[in-house]
């Protein structure tokens, strides 16, 4: 039996424990198990936003002489978190728009060819590809990966063997199962058939070490509002391997991607570096928040975060086996910690009403993912082992008591 | 001779004068003549950002149950500023991305056809169209409008007469000259040939009344960081006439444009209303700032703002004639106030070094627009008539003294 004292002991030995104080914790009674959806507010971000707002008021348009560098500067700060080099990352737009820009650019560069993605991929990725395939008259093929283990190297290699696949889009960590894909192996297998892979790092960056350069990755995108703690709707990022930057052109030719932007020349000529993938005027407030979040990650160190994250999910799985499996829960994430990202998916036949009771009555914030998953994500930068214990304890308690049986089971809109 | 006392008298009679106190004015000695590039910081925005940041900290991911409505809610608040109806405007992405989405959607809907824009159009609009024309294999034609008067109805009608023009993109107010286009007449002339017009309202909304519905406008985009005072890189907006919404599909198919987004269904099915033109996760901080800026505009009233704006530019032109024309300046904006937006373009052979001295030594912030324009924009919500007088006085003084002759005349990067 895993007692709460065990979790308390793990917290006492946690070298990252003090980072919790760097965040605003407005309600100590609330267990937050959704940092993989929206990260907490860093205290430094409050100050950064105040500073930036004051700068707008004081410097007015003159502030742009510095702000204009921010998309690349913040990208360079973020680069080590994802194993990218300087000048390979830019922070801008949304993940959706960045995915669209890079996928369209890759497709144009390859002069057509099929698109490949996982049938269970995150919705926006699938929808973007569906739109691109229709617009460009190319085929969109689906990998039918195991819903728990996620895409494996062999099936990507098999799909690319046809020789006509221009681009594969995959999540590094799967949004539902938390399955961690083998980025270097899949990238290499695709490259054998001259297929590019565009990695969506939204659910891995900041919780799992990513090494884009060592893994040979060509393209990547990701959001900053999960483990990077950039805030709701903060600007996303994109990565283009240095040798590909001159080859690719964004379909959205905007003035921030133009060489010598303020000469306002007659024709579009893309900037020399990663700036060419910018489009319109970047969100300066949003960039300030992303920068503050990234600095905290760098201070903690991605390797240390990963070690703690694995320990947090190991405890979640162990408690699931002891307390939840007897109540009809099924582990819907890889059991091997090495193949799992920062969150754990627990399937249950009536997951939706369980989630509602959990948040409304038990003061634990999970995520529901249709059709049947209670998703628990304990961001290692500020989550405690007792948070895991309390979340599972309250979850088990409500199901044991049958509190969810009175809840409306029709899946309404949830975030 | 126009004395400063005349400007002081105009300020004393200004019914909008008290709105200046609603903005942060960090430096009373600075004359800000660039509110048409980046508006000032409203005091209410400081509070709104603090509130939103606190909400992120307290509600965490649960905040999305309200935030998710913000792109449409803020769009509905903004709608009266541009003469749109409820459910016709959404606030999201950048102007560049929105222009791309709507132009591509229109082109796909029309099944091809030529694109038409003004040779002197704002750079990002030209670049977006250039990219779309190349990607879709359609022709991009240029209107060669008078650089001061801007596009006129007859030349748009003549260009559309060929019958193969799918879409015209025009600015309502020209970014350099300030020329105000006749939106209803041009829209109607194009419609006779089944040509859609996409209006860029960036330089008009908030300074000039816009009546999209009465003018029969099909499509529009605009930024919020100029007269709407949304802050650097705040989210932009887009408008699609109600009857066209079901016809058009965004090329960037993102999860925020999906019907029943959180069912995460297998195929993209665009939402029923204006939401279908959303793409990725919207910037919640940015939306809060836009909302605060829009409320101030609504409180002042666009008609009152326009009356003051015309008076401000009339004074600028009169002072130009008296003080600047003798120094080699040329009015590069329409002389008729009815045909002019909220800013005035003053051309000079050595405009760039003049601008540098004006901002660095004389503490007046104008904009330089290549090759030869000093642009003065006095946003009517917070600018005073003495600001106009002081700006022209300092500008005349520096040129009379020849202070600009020592300045490096090579146009470096400017914003």
What does this structure look like?
The structure is a homodimer of 415-residue chains. With 415 residues, chain A is α/β, with parallel strands linked by helices. Chain A contains 13 helices and 13 strands. In chain A, helix 8 links the parallel strand 5 (165-171) and strand 6 (196-200). In chain A, helix 5 runs parallel beside helix 6 (123-136). The longest helix of chain A is centred in the C-terminal third of the chain and has 23 residues, at 302-324. The two termini of chain A are 34 Å apart. In chain A, 59% of the residues are buried. The mean pLDDT of chain A is 96. Chains A and B meet through helix 2, helix 3, helix 5, helix 6 and helix 10 of A and helix 2, helix 3, helix 5, helix 6 and helix 10 of B.
């Amino acid at each position: 039996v895993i007692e709460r004292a065990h979790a308390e002991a793990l917290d006492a030995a946690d070298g990252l424990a003090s980072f919790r104080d760097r965040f605003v914790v407005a309600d100590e009674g609330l267990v937050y198990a959704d940092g993989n959806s929206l990260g907490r507010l860093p205290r430094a971000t409050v100050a950064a936003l105040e500073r930036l707002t004051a700068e707008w008021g004081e410097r007015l348009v003159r502030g742009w002489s510095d702000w204009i560098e921010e998309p690349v500067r913040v990208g360079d700060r973020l680069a080590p978190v994802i194993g990218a080099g300087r000048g390979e990352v830019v922070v801008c737009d949304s993940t959706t728009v960045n995915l669209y820009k890079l996928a369209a650019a890759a497709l144009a560069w390859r002069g057509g060819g099929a698109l490949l993605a996982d049938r269970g991929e995150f919705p926006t990725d699938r929808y973007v590809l569906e739109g691109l395939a229709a617009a460009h008259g190319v085929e969109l093929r689906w990998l039918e990966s195991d819903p728990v283990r996620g895409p494996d190297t062999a099936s990507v290699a098999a799909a690319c063997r046809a020789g006509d696949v221009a681009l594969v889009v995959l999540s590094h960590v799967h949004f539902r199962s938390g399955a961690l894909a083998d980025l270097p192996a899949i990238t290499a297998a695709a490259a054998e058939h001259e297929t590019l892979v565009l990695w969506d790092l939204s659910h891995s960056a900041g919780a799992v070490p990513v090494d884009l350069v060592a893994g040979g990755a060509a393209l990547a995108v990701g959001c900053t509002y999960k483990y990077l703690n950039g805030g709701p709707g903060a600007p996303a990022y994109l990565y283009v391997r240095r040798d590909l930057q001159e080859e690719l052109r964004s379909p959205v030719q905007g003035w921030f991607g133009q060489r010598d932007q303020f000469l306002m020349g007659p024709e579009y000529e893309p900037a020399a570096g990663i700036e060419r993938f910018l489009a319109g005027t970047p969100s300066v407030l949003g960039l300030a928040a992303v920068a503050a979040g990234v600095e905290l990650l760098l201070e903690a160190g991605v390797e240390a975060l990963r070690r703690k994250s694995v320990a947090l999910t190991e405890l979640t799985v162990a408690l699931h086996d002891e307390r939840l499996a007897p109540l009809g829960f099924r582990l819907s994430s890889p059991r091997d910690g090495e193949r799992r990202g920062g969150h754990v998916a627990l399937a249950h036949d009536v997951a939706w009403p369980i989630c509602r009771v959990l948040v409304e009555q038990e003061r634990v914030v999970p995520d529901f993912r249709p059709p049947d998953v209670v998703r628990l994500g304990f961001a290692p930068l500020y989550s405690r082992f007792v948070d895991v214990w309390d979340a599972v304890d309250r979850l088990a308690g409500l199901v044991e008591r049958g509190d969810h049986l009175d809840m409306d089971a029709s899946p309404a809109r949830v975030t």
